[in-house]
Specification:
alpha/beta, TIM Barrel, Jelly Rolls, 7-stranded antiparallel β-sheet, 24 strands, 24% helix, 23% strand
């Protein structure tokens, strides 16, 4: 289904005039997506993810497609498109907000054809600041990325008007969306109005950082070493050289250094060598902007959509999972390290010959160059930006937002689909867990747990829960599960109990038979006195069988209803 841009149902706008027309005429106001839930803030460098997948607005409703599932690692998400005004779709807003992640739209000006619009923006600045804020408020998203990739027709005077307009936009956004509304500037235009990427914070772009408060710039792969020193000093040196100091709310954490996962101009070549650039970004103390992480899917899309098993969606998921949280290192991702006695790189250790590996040629990105730095071995994105914990209540159906089949209460009711509204995979995976697409309680997948521990009920952690009280209220939790037959005989007494790590249960555990072989166990217990975070998950008992597989269909934990009613 092609995306639409009519005034009656506008997914995006190709011009500022189209945006104005939309608000000048009656139009259907969509239901607001979920508001963003509360979650703990990250204290160190943050991760911004810029969607940038095939132009956007292309989720296939009747086929398996790309979805994003690693929200716990992300601090801000940008839905990127090359249309002039690109608000995020409601389904993506819901998916982001379900995990507490702010999601932004894109305002973009590129190529000469956009020059009339960038002139219109500043000549009628208050109008368009108001319209963009109204659009964000109407559709329930959290801010804008400002991407001006065209020389300003009026030069320095035009740049000064643009700086003033950014302030108006921030004011309108805070009035309508709230104090947490975000405006982020992409480094491309200088304070003289020239189109000239600086790839660092400096005198030519510091005024835009000061105006917006957040700043995304590319990393020049040829200046990766120099960039560390530059970035850590410019907030007090370069910025002061050209303009009043940036507001005290800005810091190096408000500077986002870009990594293009396709490898365009990226130190290390992107892909499974994105950690090369992340090593430098972390050393510099800035935050990270990760562009186009859908590379894992888009670079081999035909393979993932037409193949089966490890040559189909499951193969992509293994690749996606390695990129985000690690696993076995794909061929070609090992990093030669300079030896102590010679400047030439040492020979990397051989790969495990039994390990499934992608083709080497597919993993080396355009722009790759030999090792010039003493980089670490492969490390995933979550090593640098770990998953944040969440507050109660917490729930998941383990659905990745797509499926080979559609399930409702354990029954197969439809075929392939993609819909981010149903995406609910907000757990972090370990060595004994994987997605399973052939059976599910709700949505498109269940969570397969492989255990070889007999009756001891070894804990399987799935998500950290944060408590901000030293004496937490009683909580109630439930899990929906199903033994995976024929992996386990039907005679085996399988029990899956929701649990916190190292907590003692108090009270009874209730079990209920559900449809299609699924079961539910509910439990109520009192957490011990603590603040901070504790891991939540399940304990699996296999009734004396040495090994087996169990499917998890849903898992949740919340304060007891009796506490909420009081």
């Amino acid at each position: 289904m092609a995306p639409t841009s009519t005034a009656a149902h506008a997914e995006y706008f190709t011009s500022l005039a189209a945006l104005a027309s939309y608000f000048d005429h009656p139009h259907a106001v969509p239901l607001k997506p979920l508001p963003a839930r509360r979650r703990p803030a990250r204290s160190g460098p943050r991760l911004l993810v810029c969607h940038d997948y095939k132009g956007g607005y292309n989720d296939p409703p009747d086929a398996m497609g790309y979805t994003f599932n690693f929200w716990p690692c992300v601090d801000t998400f940008i839905y990127f498109s090359h249309y002039r005004v690109a608000p995020p779709p409601a389904s993506w807003i819901t998916a982001a907000h379900r995990e507490g992640v702010p999601i932004l739209g894109t305002l973009i000006f590129e190529w000469d054809e956009s020059k009339p619009d960038i002139s219109l923006l500043t000549s009628r600045g208050r109008l368009y600041a108001s319209l963009l804020a109204r659009l964000a408020h109407e559709r329930g998203f959290d801010g804008w990325l400002l991407n001006v990739e065209v020389a300003l027709p009026g030069g320095r005077a035009h740049a000064e008007k643009l700086l003033e307009w950014i302030g108006e936009l921030k004011s309108e956004m805070r009035a309508l969306v709230g104090e947490d509304a975000q405006v982020i500037w992409y480094d491309s235009v200088t304070d003289a109005g020239h189109l000239a990427w600086q790839d660092r914070l400096c005198a030519a772009n510091a005024p835009f950082f000061a105006a917006a408060g957040k700043f995304v710039r590319d990393m020049d792969r040829h200046q990766a070493q120099q960039d560390e020193a530059t970035t850590t000093t410019t907030t007090t040196t370069d910025a002061n050289a050209s303009a009043p100091a940036a507001p005290t709310t800005t810091s190096t954490l408000d500077i986002y250094t870009g990594i293009d996962v396709w490898g365009r101009g990226t130190h290390g070549g992107g892909g499974f060598k994105s950690h090369w650039a992340l090593d430098h970004i972390r050393a510099a103390g800035t935050s990270t902007a990760l562009f186009a992480p859908a590379w894992t899917w888009e670079s081999q899309e035909e393979r993932w959509t037409e193949g089966q098993g490890q040559e189909g969606w499951e193969g992509w998921w293994a690749r996606e999972r390695r990129f985000w949280i690690g696993g076995r290192t794909p061929l070609g991702t090992e990093v030669p390290r300079p030896s102590a006695s010679s400047p030439s790189p040492s020979v990397p250790p051989p790969e495990d010959e039994n390990e499934e590996q992608p083709d080497l040629d597919l993993e080396l990105m355009p722009g790759f160059f030999p090792a010039l730095c003493n980089h670490t071995p492969y490390r995933p994105i979550a090593h640098f930006h770990p998953a944040l914990p969440t507050y109660l209540p917490f729930s998941t159906t383990f659905c990745p937002g797509t499926g080979r089949h559609t399930f409702a209460r354990g029954e197969k009711v439809g075929g392939a689909w993609t819909d981010m509204v149903k995406q609910d995979l907000n757990v972090m995976m370990g060595d004994v867990t994987s997605l399973y697409l052939e059976d599910a309680w709700e949505g498109g997948a269940s969570f397969k747990v492989v255990r070889a521990n007999g009756e001891d009920g070894t804990f399987v952690g799935l998500r950290e829960i944060a408590f901000d009280s030293e004496d937490p209220d009683p909580v109630e939790a439930e899990v929906v599960f199903k033994p995976l037959v024929p992996a386990l005989p039907e005679s085996v007494n399988v029990t899956v109990v929701p649990a916190f790590l190292e907590e003692e249960w108090e009270g009874e555990v209730d079990e209920e038979e559900l449809e299609n072989g699924w079961r539910r166990i509910r439990a109520r217990f009192q957490p011990g006195k603590k603040t901070g975070t504790v891991m939540f998950g399940v304990r699996v008992r296999l009734g004396g069988v040495g090994a087996g597989e169990v499917l998890l269909g849903a898992l949740s934990v919340r304060k007891c209803q009796c506490v909420q009613e009081n």
